[in-house]
Amino acid sequence: MDPSACAKGVLYGVSVGPGDPELLTLKAVRVIGECPVVAVPDIGSGRQTAYSIVRSLLEGKRVIDCSTPMSRDRARAAESYDRIADDICAVLDAGESVAYATLGDASVYSTFSYIRDRVAGRGYATEVVPGVTSFCASAAKLGVSLCDGAERLVVEPGTAAGGGFSPDATRVYLKSGSRLEKLRADLAERGELDDASMVSDCGLPTEAVFPRFAEADLSQGASYFSTVIVKRRGRR
Protein backbone atom coordinates (compact mmCIF):
# COMPACT_ATOMS: atom_id res chain seq x y z
CA MET A 1 0.00 0.00 0.00
CA ASP A 2 1.36 3.41 -0.99
CA PRO A 3 1.39 5.77 2.03
CA SER A 4 0.94 8.74 -0.31
CA ALA A 5 -2.49 7.38 -1.26
CA CYS A 6 -3.81 8.20 2.21
CA ALA A 7 -4.13 11.53 3.97
CA LYS A 8 -3.05 9.74 7.13
CA GLY A 9 -0.06 7.50 7.61
CA VAL A 10 -0.06 3.72 7.35
CA LEU A 11 0.91 1.30 10.12
CA TYR A 12 3.16 -1.49 8.84
CA GLY A 13 3.79 -4.59 10.90
CA VAL A 14 7.31 -5.42 9.73
CA SER A 15 8.40 -8.97 10.51
CA VAL A 16 12.14 -8.94 11.22
CA GLY A 17 12.84 -12.65 11.70
CA PRO A 18 14.10 -14.46 14.80
CA GLY A 19 17.37 -12.63 15.39
CA ASP A 20 19.85 -12.70 12.52
CA PRO A 21 19.69 -9.37 10.62
CA GLU A 22 20.58 -11.25 7.43
CA LEU A 23 17.13 -12.87 7.60
CA LEU A 24 15.42 -9.51 7.08
CA THR A 25 13.50 -9.60 3.81
CA LEU A 26 14.11 -7.07 1.05
CA LYS A 27 10.59 -5.74 1.59
CA ALA A 28 11.18 -5.31 5.32
CA VAL A 29 14.31 -3.25 4.64
CA ARG A 30 12.49 -1.16 2.03
CA VAL A 31 9.46 -0.43 4.22
CA ILE A 32 11.60 0.52 7.21
CA GLY A 33 13.62 2.78 4.93
CA GLU A 34 10.49 4.51 3.64
CA CYS A 35 8.87 5.08 7.04
CA PRO A 36 10.02 8.14 9.00
CA VAL A 37 8.98 6.53 12.28
CA VAL A 38 9.88 3.05 13.57
CA ALA A 39 8.20 1.44 16.58
CA VAL A 40 10.14 -1.21 18.50
CA PRO A 41 8.96 -3.29 21.46
CA ASP A 42 12.18 -3.55 23.42
CA ILE A 43 14.19 -0.32 23.79
CA GLY A 44 16.35 -0.51 26.89
CA SER A 45 15.36 -4.09 27.67
CA GLY A 46 18.92 -5.34 27.30
CA ARG A 47 17.72 -8.10 24.99
CA GLN A 48 19.28 -8.53 21.56
CA THR A 49 15.90 -8.71 19.88
CA ALA A 50 13.85 -6.59 17.46
CA TYR A 51 15.64 -3.32 18.23
CA SER A 52 19.11 -4.72 17.60
CA ILE A 53 17.99 -6.46 14.40
CA VAL A 54 16.90 -3.18 12.79
CA ARG A 55 19.31 -0.83 14.57
CA SER A 56 21.50 -0.32 11.49
CA LEU A 57 18.42 0.93 9.60
CA LEU A 58 17.37 3.55 12.14
CA GLU A 59 19.67 6.44 11.28
CA GLY A 60 17.58 9.59 10.89
CA LYS A 61 14.42 7.83 12.11
CA ARG A 62 12.21 8.75 15.02
CA VAL A 63 11.87 5.71 17.26
CA ILE A 64 8.83 4.95 19.42
CA ASP A 65 9.31 2.73 22.47
CA CYS A 66 6.48 0.18 22.46
CA SER A 67 7.59 -1.88 25.44
CA THR A 68 4.89 -4.08 26.93
CA PRO A 69 4.84 -5.85 30.30
CA MET A 70 5.67 -9.56 30.36
CA SER A 71 2.53 -10.35 32.28
CA ARG A 72 -0.48 -12.66 32.05
CA ASP A 73 -2.63 -9.92 33.54
CA ARG A 74 -4.93 -9.24 30.60
CA ALA A 75 -6.15 -5.91 31.94
CA ARG A 76 -2.60 -4.66 32.36
CA ALA A 77 -1.64 -5.88 28.89
CA ALA A 78 -4.73 -4.28 27.31
CA GLU A 79 -3.89 -0.97 28.96
CA SER A 80 -0.40 -1.17 27.48
CA TYR A 81 -1.74 -1.97 23.99
CA ASP A 82 -4.17 0.96 24.21
CA ARG A 83 -1.31 3.31 25.11
CA ILE A 84 0.82 2.10 22.22
CA ALA A 85 -2.10 2.44 19.80
CA ASP A 86 -2.65 6.02 21.02
CA ASP A 87 1.02 6.88 20.40
CA ILE A 88 1.00 5.34 16.93
CA CYS A 89 -2.30 6.93 15.90
CA ALA A 90 -0.95 10.35 16.87
CA VAL A 91 1.88 9.83 14.38
CA LEU A 92 -0.48 8.54 11.68
CA ASP A 93 -2.71 11.59 12.16
CA ALA A 94 0.28 13.75 11.27
CA GLY A 95 0.52 11.95 7.93
CA GLU A 96 3.59 9.90 8.84
CA SER A 97 3.74 6.13 8.39
CA VAL A 98 5.03 3.83 11.11
CA ALA A 99 7.01 0.60 10.74
CA TYR A 100 6.41 -1.60 13.79
CA ALA A 101 9.31 -4.07 14.02
CA THR A 102 8.17 -7.43 15.36
CA LEU A 103 10.18 -10.61 15.92
CA GLY A 104 9.66 -13.62 13.69
CA ASP A 105 6.53 -13.26 11.59
CA ALA A 106 3.81 -10.81 12.57
CA SER A 107 1.09 -13.42 12.02
CA VAL A 108 2.48 -15.92 14.57
CA TYR A 109 2.01 -15.19 18.30
CA SER A 110 2.93 -11.54 17.84
CA THR A 111 2.04 -8.58 20.03
CA PHE A 112 1.60 -6.62 16.82
CA SER A 113 -1.77 -8.28 16.19
CA TYR A 114 -3.21 -6.59 19.29
CA ILE A 115 -1.83 -3.22 18.20
CA ARG A 116 -3.03 -3.64 14.62
CA ASP A 117 -6.57 -4.52 15.72
CA ARG A 118 -6.77 -1.36 17.81
CA VAL A 119 -5.33 0.90 15.13
CA ALA A 120 -7.39 -0.63 12.30
CA GLY A 121 -10.48 -0.42 14.50
CA ARG A 122 -10.04 3.35 14.55
CA GLY A 123 -10.12 3.48 10.76
CA TYR A 124 -6.41 3.63 9.93
CA ALA A 125 -4.77 1.64 7.14
CA THR A 126 -2.51 -1.24 8.18
CA GLU A 127 -0.35 -3.75 6.33
CA VAL A 128 1.74 -6.75 7.38
CA VAL A 129 5.16 -7.49 5.91
CA PRO A 130 5.77 -11.24 6.35
CA GLY A 131 9.05 -12.67 7.56
CA VAL A 132 11.01 -15.74 8.65
CA THR A 133 9.54 -17.56 11.64
CA SER A 134 11.68 -18.80 14.52
CA PHE A 135 10.61 -22.39 13.97
CA CYS A 136 11.58 -22.37 10.29
CA ALA A 137 14.95 -20.84 11.16
CA SER A 138 15.39 -23.39 13.96
CA ALA A 139 14.61 -26.29 11.61
CA ALA A 140 17.27 -24.94 9.26
CA LYS A 141 19.80 -24.82 12.11
CA LEU A 142 18.94 -28.42 13.02
CA GLY A 143 18.99 -29.60 9.42
CA VAL A 144 15.53 -31.15 9.67
CA SER A 145 12.44 -30.95 7.50
CA LEU A 146 9.36 -29.86 9.42
CA CYS A 147 6.93 -31.81 7.26
CA ASP A 148 7.03 -33.95 4.13
CA GLY A 149 4.35 -35.35 1.88
CA ALA A 150 1.07 -35.56 3.78
CA GLU A 151 2.62 -34.98 7.22
CA ARG A 152 0.92 -32.43 9.44
CA LEU A 153 2.57 -29.59 11.35
CA VAL A 154 1.23 -28.41 14.70
CA VAL A 155 2.56 -25.15 16.20
CA GLU A 156 1.80 -24.37 19.83
CA PRO A 157 3.04 -22.00 22.53
CA GLY A 158 5.21 -23.53 25.23
CA THR A 159 2.34 -23.05 27.67
CA ALA A 160 0.50 -25.83 25.81
CA ALA A 161 3.03 -28.40 27.03
CA GLY A 162 1.26 -31.29 28.69
CA GLY A 163 -2.02 -30.68 26.91
CA GLY A 164 -3.49 -32.58 23.99
CA PHE A 165 -1.05 -33.66 21.32
CA SER A 166 -0.93 -35.25 17.88
CA PRO A 167 1.61 -38.10 17.83
CA ASP A 168 1.41 -38.45 14.05
CA ALA A 169 2.32 -34.80 13.41
CA THR A 170 5.52 -32.81 13.71
CA ARG A 171 5.02 -30.55 16.72
CA VAL A 172 6.64 -27.21 17.42
CA TYR A 173 6.59 -25.54 20.84
CA LEU A 174 7.43 -21.83 20.76
CA LYS A 175 8.64 -19.50 23.52
CA SER A 176 8.92 -22.47 25.85
CA GLY A 177 11.24 -20.82 28.40
CA SER A 178 10.13 -21.66 31.93
CA ARG A 179 8.06 -24.60 30.68
CA LEU A 180 10.99 -26.56 29.27
CA GLU A 181 11.47 -28.84 32.28
CA LYS A 182 7.80 -29.82 32.24
CA LEU A 183 7.81 -30.24 28.48
CA ARG A 184 10.84 -32.50 28.64
CA ALA A 185 9.25 -34.59 31.39
CA ASP A 186 6.02 -34.91 29.40
CA LEU A 187 7.89 -36.01 26.28
CA ALA A 188 9.88 -38.56 28.28
CA GLU A 189 6.69 -39.96 29.78
CA ARG A 190 5.21 -40.38 26.29
CA GLY A 191 8.39 -41.98 24.96
CA GLU A 192 9.05 -39.08 22.60
CA LEU A 193 12.06 -37.40 24.18
CA ASP A 194 14.49 -38.99 21.71
CA ASP A 195 12.48 -37.39 18.89
CA ALA A 196 12.83 -33.85 20.27
CA SER A 197 15.37 -31.14 19.40
CA MET A 198 15.75 -27.59 20.68
CA VAL A 199 17.19 -24.26 19.57
CA SER A 200 17.34 -21.33 21.97
CA ASP A 201 17.87 -17.71 20.91
CA CYS A 202 17.95 -18.67 17.24
CA GLY A 203 20.04 -16.20 15.25
CA LEU A 204 21.18 -14.26 18.33
CA PRO A 205 24.71 -14.12 19.78
CA THR A 206 23.53 -16.41 22.60
CA GLU A 207 22.17 -19.07 20.22
CA ALA A 208 22.41 -22.68 21.38
CA VAL A 209 21.50 -25.69 19.23
CA PHE A 210 20.62 -29.08 20.75
CA PRO A 211 19.92 -31.82 18.19
CA ARG A 212 18.79 -33.88 21.19
CA PHE A 213 16.58 -31.99 23.62
CA ALA A 214 17.40 -34.60 26.27
CA GLU A 215 21.00 -33.34 26.35
CA ALA A 216 20.16 -29.65 26.84
CA ASP A 217 21.40 -28.26 30.16
CA LEU A 218 18.42 -26.57 31.80
CA SER A 219 20.01 -26.24 35.24
CA GLN A 220 20.73 -22.52 34.75
CA GLY A 221 17.30 -21.76 33.39
CA ALA A 222 16.36 -21.39 29.74
CA SER A 223 15.75 -18.56 27.33
CA TYR A 224 12.19 -17.42 26.73
CA PHE A 225 13.06 -17.68 23.03
CA SER A 226 13.43 -21.46 23.02
CA THR A 227 11.92 -23.55 20.24
CA VAL A 228 11.39 -27.29 20.63
CA ILE A 229 10.70 -29.45 17.57
CA VAL A 230 9.33 -32.98 17.96
CA LYS A 231 9.57 -35.20 14.90
CA ARG A 232 9.97 -38.95 14.77
CA ARG A 233 13.58 -39.80 14.02
CA GLY A 234 12.54 -42.29 11.36
CA ARG A 235 10.86 -39.47 9.42
CA ARG A 236 13.90 -37.20 9.30
TrEMBL record:
| GO MF annotation list | precorrin-2 C20-methyltransferase activity
Question: Which keywords does this Swiss-Prot/TrEMBL entry list?
Answer: Cobalamin biosynthesis, Methyltransferase, S-adenosyl-L-methionine, Transferase
PANTHER family, alphabetized: COBALT-PRECORRIN-2 C(20)-METHYLTRANSFERASE
GO BP of this protein = cobalamin biosynthetic process; methylation
Under the heading InterPro entries, the entry gives: 4pyrrol_Mease, 4pyrrol_Methylase_sf, 4pyrrole_Mease_sub1, 4pyrrole_Mease_sub2, CobI/CbiL, CobI/CbiL/CobIJ_dom
Among Pfam families, the record links this protein to: TP_methylase (PF00590)
Q: Does the keyword GTP-binding apply?
A: no
Q: Where is the signal peptide?
A: none
- Judging by the UniProt lineage, the source's domain of life is Bacteria
Look up keyword Oxidoreductase and say if it applies.
Answer: no
Q: In which pathway does it act?
A: Cofactor biosynthesis; adenosylcobalamin biosynthesis
- Which residues does the UniProt record annotate as the domain Tetrapyrrole methylase? 11-211
Family as reported in the entry's similarity comment: Belongs to the precorrin methyltransferase family.
Quote the protein name from its UniProt record: Precorrin-2 C20-methyltransferase
